[in-house]
C-alpha cells in the first residue's frame, strides 16, 4: 500500500534536552532526532469518531490526563499529593471527562518540560496511540467483513512495526520490568486515586475492542460501546474503591480481541506497562533528577526489544488469568441487567373492547369517573391512554389495580396555560402509579454522580432541575386539591426532565448498569409515558 507520511523533525526537542544539563550518550542524542509519523492512509480512518463520538472524545481527555500527570511529577517533585489526587483529579473527572475535547490534543502543549526531558518516549506513546485508534476504526467500520477487518489489522501492524525506533515489542514483557525495579510502584503508592484513574483509562482503551468484535449488529455494537463507557464512568464513583487494583491486561479484559489479534494485544499491554514505569521514575525520589532521562530511555529500549524481560505468549495469558479480571476493573461485557419478561402478547391493546374495557370515543370529555363505573371502565379520553383495571377485570396477569389519577384543580396552569385536563390530551397528569415510578426514576438518576455531572454541565437541564425542585418544595403547602394538582404537574415535569436526560446516549447507557434504574426504565408504563412525552414539546415550567 502506498503510504503518505506526514513527518516533522524533532531536532529542536533534542536540542532542548541537551540544554537541560541532562547529558546523554551520542547515540541517544542521535536517536532523539526521529520524526513523527501519521495514520496509514485508509478508507476506514476516523470511522470510529463518526460512529462512536462519545467514546472517541474520551480519548482526547485521556491524552490530557497522561500529559498533566508527567508534567506535574517532573516539574513539582515536592508538591503535596493533593495537587494531583484532588485538584487535577477533580478537574479531569468532573469537567474534562464530562465534556471531553472534540479533537485530539497536542500533548506537548501540556507537558512542556517533560517533552524536553524525553521526546523519544513521547513519540513512542503517540505511535502506539495511532495504532490504537486505527484498530478502533477498522473494527467500527460496518462496511468491512470480518475477513477484511483481519486483513486491514494485519496491514496496520506491519505499518506500525515499520518504525522499530518507536514500536513497542510484540513479545510479552514480564512484571519484573514494571514492578521489580528499584523505583517501581512509587507512583501507585503515593497517588493511589490518580493511578486508579490511569488504570481505568487503560481498562477502557483495551475494553472497547470487545463489544466492537462481539456485537453481531451495528445496534449491538453501539449498545456494547455505550455500556463499556458507562462502566468506566461507574469506576469513578467513590474513588479509588471501584477502580482497578492491578494493571488491566488485555487477555483478561478483552479475551476475544486478545485471542484474535494477540500481537496487537501484547503491544498494548507493553505500552501500558511503560506508562506505569515512567510514572514511577518521575515520582520516585530514589531516581535523582539528573538520572531520570537515563532511566526513561533505558526502560524505552527494553520495551522495544524482543530479548529482555520476556515471557511466552502462554505465560502472558496465564499471568492475566492469575491476576484476576475482578482485580482489573472487571469484564467489559455481561453486566447489563436483562429485560423483564413481558406479561402480554405483542400487539395487545387497551382500547375498544380490549383488556381493561376502556372507551376512547369521547376525546373532548374530562377524565371524570361516572357514577357506578369501576376504575377499569372509566373514560380516559382526556389523558389519551387507559389505566390498568382491577385484577379481576383484566386479562393481564400480574397487573394489579392502580389508583385513579388526581383531577387537577380547576384553572390550575401547569404548562398548558389556560387549558383544562381534557384539552391538554397527552399533557394531562400521569396516574399515581406512573407518578411514583417516574419520580423514583428521576430521583435515582439524580443520585448517580455521573448523571448529576451531566445535568450541571448543561445549562438547560440545570434550569429544569432547579425549577422542578423549587416546584416540589412549593407544592408541600396550601390547599389539598391544589397540592394534588401541583404534585401531579411536578411528576409530569419530572418525566419531561427524564426524557431530556435520556436524549444523552451516555446517560441512557448509564441506566443499564444499575439494575434498579434499568428495571424502572423498562417498566411498560414508564416506557409508554416516555414515548408520549417524546412525541410532543417539553412542557414549560409550571407556575404556582
Describe this structure in words.
The protein is an all-alpha fold and 544 residues long. The chain has two domains: 11-327, no CATH class; 409-534, no CATH class. Helices cover 55% and strands 0% of the residues. It contains 26 helices and no strands. Helix 4 packs parallel to helix 16 (262-283) and helix 7 (119-139) packs antiparallel against helix 8. It starts with 10 loop residues before the first helix and ends in a 10-residue tail after the last helix. Residues 1-31, 356-427, 471-481 and 538-544 have low confidence and may be disordered.
Q: Number of DSSP helices?
A: 26
Could you state the order of secondary-structure elements as H and E?
A: HHHHHHHHHHHHHHHHHHHHHHHHHH
Please report which band the strand proportion falls in: under 5%, 5-15%, 15-25%, 25-35%, 35-45% or over 45%.
under 5%
Question: What is the straight-line distance between the termini?
Answer: 69 Å
Oligomer state equals single chain
Helix percent band: 55-70%
Low-confidence stretches: 1-31, 356-427, 471-481, 538-544
Tell me the total number of β-strands: 0
The biggest sheet, with number of strands, parallel, antiparallel or mixed sense and barrel status, is:
none
Q: Give the averaged pLDDT, no decimals.
A: 78
Shape: globular
Compute the number of structural domains.
Answer: 2
- Based on helices, strands and strand pairing, what is the structural class? mainly alpha
Cα radius of gyration in angstroms = 29 Å
Amino acid at each position: 500500500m502506498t503510504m503518505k507520511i506526514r513527518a516533522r523533525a524533532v531536532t529542536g526537542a533534542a536540542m532542548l534536552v541537551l540544554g537541560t544539563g541532562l547529558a546523554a550518550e551520542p547515540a541517544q542524542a542521535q536517536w532523539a532526532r526521529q520524526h513523527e509519523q501519521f495514520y496509514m492512509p485508509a478508507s476506514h480512518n476516523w470511522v470510529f469518531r463518526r460512529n462512536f463520538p462519545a467514546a472517541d472524545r474520551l480519548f482526547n481527555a485521556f491524552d490530557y490526563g497522561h500529559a498533566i500527570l508527567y508534567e506535574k511529577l517532573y516539574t513539582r517533585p515536592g508538591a503535596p499529593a493533593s495537587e494531583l489526587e484532588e485538584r487535577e483529579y477533580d478537574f479531569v473527572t468532573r469537567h474534562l471527562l464530562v465534556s471531553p475535547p472534540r479533537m485530539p490534543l497536542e500533548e506537548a502543549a501540556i507537558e512542556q518540560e517533560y517533552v524536553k526531558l524525553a521526546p523519544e518516549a513521547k513519540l513512542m506513546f503517540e505511535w502506539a496511540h495511532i495504532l490504537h485508534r486505527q484498530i478502533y476504526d477498522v473494527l467500527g467500520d460496518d462496511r468491512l467483513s470480518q475477513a477484511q477487518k483481519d486483513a486491514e489489522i494485519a496491514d496496520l501492524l506491519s505499518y506500525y512495526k515499520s518504525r522499530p525506533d518507536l514500536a513497542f515489542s510484540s513479545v510479552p514483557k514480564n512484571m519484573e520490568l514494571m514492578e521489580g525495579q528499584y523505583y517501581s510502584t512509587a507512583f501507585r503508592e503515593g497517588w493511589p486515586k490518580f493511578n486508579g484513574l490511569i488504570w481505568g483509562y487503560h481498562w477502557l482503551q483495551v475494553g472497547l475492542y470487545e463489544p466492537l468484535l462481539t456485537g453481531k449488529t451495528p445496534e449491538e455494537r453501539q449498545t456494547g460501546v455505550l455500556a463499556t463507557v458507562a462502566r468506566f464512568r461507574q469506576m469513578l464513583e467513590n474513588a479509588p474503591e471501584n477502580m482497578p487494583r492491578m494493571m488491566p491486561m488485555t487477555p483478561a479484559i478483552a479475551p476475544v480481541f486478545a485471542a484474535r489479534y494477540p500481537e496487537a494485544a501484547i503491544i498494548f499491554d507493553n505500552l501500558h506497562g511503560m506508562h506505569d514505569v515512567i510514572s514511577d521514575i518521575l515520582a520516585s525520589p530514589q531516581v535523582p533528577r539528573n538520572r531520570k532521562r537515563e532511566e526513561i530511555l533505558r526502560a524505552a529500549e527494553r520495551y522495544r526489544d524482543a530479548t529482555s524481560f520476556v515471557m511466552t505468549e502462554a505465560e502472558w495469558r496465564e499471568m492475566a488469568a492469575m491476576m484476576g479480571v475482578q482485580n482489573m476493573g472487571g469484564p467489559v461485557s455481561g453486566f447489563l441487567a436483562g429485560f423483564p419478561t413481558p406479561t402480554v402478547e405483542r400487539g395487545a391493546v387497551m382500547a375498544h373492547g380490549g383488556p381493561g374495557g376502556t372507551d376512547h370515543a369521547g376525546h373532548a370529555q374530562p377524565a371524570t369517573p361516572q357514577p357506578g363505573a369501576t376504575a377499569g371502565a372509566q373514560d380516559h379520553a382526556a389523558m389519551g391512554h387507559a389505566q390498568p383495571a382491577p385484577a379481576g377485570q383484566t386479562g393481564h396477569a400480574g397487573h394489579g389495580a392502580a389508583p385513579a389519577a388526581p383531577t387537577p384543580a380547576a384553572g390550575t396552569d401547569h404548562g398548558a396555560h389556560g387549558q383544562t385536563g381534557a384539552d391538554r390530551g397527552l399533557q394531562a397528569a400521569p396516574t399515581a402509579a406512573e407518578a411514583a415510578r417516574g419520580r423514583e426514576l428521576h430521583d435515582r438518576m439524580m443520585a448517580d454522580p455521573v448523571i448529576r455531572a451531566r445535568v450541571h454541565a448543561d445549562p438547560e437541564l440545570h434550569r429544569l432541575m432547579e425549577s422542578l425542585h423549587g416546584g416540589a418544595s412549593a407544592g408541600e403547602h396550601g390547599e389539598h386539591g391544589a397540592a394534588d394538582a401541583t404534585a401531579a404537574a411536578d411528576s409530569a415535569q419530572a418525566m419531561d426532565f427524564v426524557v431530556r436526560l435520556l436524549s444523552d446516549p451516555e446517560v441512557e447507557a448509564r441506566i443499564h448498569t444499575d439494575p434498579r434504574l434499568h428495571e424502572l426504565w423498562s417498566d411498560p408504563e414508564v416506557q409508554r409515558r416516555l414515548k408520549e412525552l417524546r412525541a410532543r414539546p417539553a412542557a414549560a415550567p409550571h407556575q404556582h
